[in-house]
Amino acid sequence: xxxxxxxxQKKSIxxxxxxxxxxxxxxxxxxxxxxxxxxxxxxGKRVRPILAIAAAEALGSKTSGLLPLAxxxxxxxxxxxxxxxxxxxxxxxxxxxxxxxxxxxxxxVAILAGDGLLNMAFEVLSDPGGTEAVSAKRLLAIIxxxxxxxxxxxxxxxxxxxxxxxxxxxxxxxLEYIHTHKTGALIRASVRVGAIYAKAGKRQLSALTRYGxxxxxxxxxxxxxxxxxxxxxxxxxxxxxxxxxxxKTFPSFYGLAESRRRAYEVAAKAIDSLQGFGRAADPLRExxxxxxxxxx
Length: 296
Hints:
- This protein has 296 residues and is mostly helical.
- It is 69% helix and 1% strand.
- It has one domain (3-293): Orthogonal Bundle (Farnesyl Diphosphate Synthase), CATH 1.10.600.
- It has a two-stranded antiparallel sheet.
């Protein structure tokens, strides 16, 4: 299959959903809505909602009813990027080739725009008008999945340890904790959301969970590599920022060559976890390869 065509097609579908979910920039109070849309529509790849869609498709499910749930994943991801870029956190000036949200709208509005996106995600998830395709039991499981992945046992916890580890010697288990929580938790949850939506059986959910865990780790190893090898134009942000901030990464532990080998090894294991699935899971298989071969 042509993974680029698949990604382009699904991104277009997700973007149309997001345009409907988020208030117009002209709606009062305009500053926060404009800031939310500025970051949300800055050109993201929509990997997380697409993973949810691909997981549901792997189980033979139609995905029209999944779109608001998948969109909520992107709202949360974008909130996390806005907050990560703040001076008190990673202090980045560029994101996706554009000035970061706080550089354009100021720190206060950027914080509130992130808060707005996070809370809007759960407004979407709990909206009876947009989630009628999902039973109450499965919807509750999906909300629990996303809230856990977004909180102190997921992204928030990973971000805390990441910040506290800057300039310090950390061991490999700590690095793996950062990767599997700061980045991997929401990727894992994205796959599981699609699986729960599609009524996955116990074995199917276990296999897709394993896929999500490995895909999340491969994604972050690839990010570590790209931070050293990519250009500002390719990455859409400052290159070498991890090195400048003295962050521990896979290349700092293993070197570039071994990190690349490990990224491909993890992606291959992710693909192996899908052995019980047919051709309908090919997008997931291709996504695992895409994750480690991307240039941004």
